[in-house]
Amino acid sequence: MWDSPMHLLIIAIVILVLFGGRKIPEVMKGLGQGVREFKEGMRGDQPQPTQTSQPANPPAAAPPAATPVEEKK
Around Cβ 27, how many Cβ atoms within 10 Å? Predict the structure, then answer.
């Protein structure tokens, strides 16, 4: 079926024309992620959420409340 490199060259040219040069890396990235998820599903691996004891970015402390200043006359 794929007995010559000319077949692969023709397929590569057709893919380039259909998707364009800029779109091909995005398509390949999506394809790779799909294959990775498929393999994980076949093995039964479930990604375990990582638990941290402290948040990465702790919330900023609230500024101290302003006390009203009484004016003396």
Answer: 13
